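quick one
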Amino acid sequence: MPELPEVETIARNLRPALVGRKVITAHLLWPRSLETPPPGQFQDRITGQIIRETGRRGKFIILQLSTDYLLIHLRMSGDLRVEPDVGAVAAHDRMVFSLDDGNRLAFNDTRKFGRVWLVEDPACVTGDLGPEPLDEAFNPVVLYQALQARRRQLKPLLLDQTFLAGLGNIYVDESLHRACLHPLTPSQSVTPAQAEALWQGIRETLHEGIRRNGASIDWVYRGGDFQNYFRAYQRTGQPCPQCGTLIERILVGQRGTHYCPDCQPPFGGR
Ligand SMILES: [Zn+2]
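structure w/ zinc ion:
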């Protein structure tokens, strides 16, 4: 599933093609992709609205329109294309928006897990999300206090979108490796210095991911090359770039988790 850097890259890449464009018509080819409003109201409500900005909150793509917001969560296989509005739509296109410049925006989703919302206030969809990890307000002290307030292992806690928005399996494994923290470390045992290392690990990993236009692996997104620079994620049996110890894989809450047993010793290990 695309994570913060991939979604950020998609939103940035859409900007030049979409900002300033007016939606002429909307075709709902698979109505169940639409969470709200009811399909009968969708086309009337979005028609005529101008796309003001493209952005992101957590893993949601947000198109700010004249009066509403269109939120898109790509989930496992969602993809967005802008292309000339001629000819038949592609297989697995779920929604198609005709624009006033002769192009169309197509939401394609093979596995149908992706979702779209048209709402007046994006907070009614994203209101439960935790802080944005790249915001100024998210600093080492805020992270330390949040870790202290929970009693969960770091890996599942960092995957929890209500704790911190935007991270998934890739960026959590990479951030924990940079911070030299074992994925099973209890959050309340993290020291202020470790919290600062984790904060820095998260920021560095996300910034590098964005700089490399995200990672292109097991989903439709094929833009970035961050997958060539992973330190731990999906590198089982390969040497840690820091110490040469072979990266190991364990299951944490059914998620494959990759770490260096030397750089990231078990809690209480040494
Ligand atoms: Zn190592």
